[in-house]
Amino acid sequence: MKKQKTENTNSAAWFTKRDFVHLSPGAYRIRCRLEQAQELLVNTQAPLASIAERLGYYDEYPFASHFKRFNGISPGRFRRLEHSR
């Protein structure tokens, strides 16, 4: 399936239908947050609490729980593994 694209590729309109089939709006929001979290963990030295707050979590614990469920590893471990490459 072709990607539908707008001028702003950060827009929610830029997706393939296959990517979001069977995702509730809440699951979609969490998925987007966690993809952004991966980028922040790799490209910044910001503490986890700051990243969590920036992404809309009230503290780092629900953020870490969602991150681990989505990625299979904790955010701290993800950062260490990415920086060791």
Q: Layout of SSEs?
A:
Blueprint lengths: L16 H4 L4 H19 L4 H7 L5 H12 L3 H9 L2
Helix pairs in contact: 2-4, 2-5
Walkthrough of the structure:
By secondary structure, the protein is an all-alpha fold. It is 60% helix and 0% strand. It contains five helices and no strands. The longest helix is centred in the middle third of the chain and has 19 residues, at 25-43.
Task: Give short descriptive properties of this protein.
globular; mainly alpha; disordered N terminus; 85 residues; single chain
N-to-C CA distance: 33 Å
Low-confidence stretches: 1-12
Beta content = under 5%
Please work out how many helical segments DSSP would assign. 5
Instruction: State the shape.
Output: globular
Radius of gyration equals: 14 Å
Tally of DSSP β-strands: 0
- Determine the structural class based on helices, strands and strand pairing: mainly alpha
- What's the order of the H and E elements? HHHHH
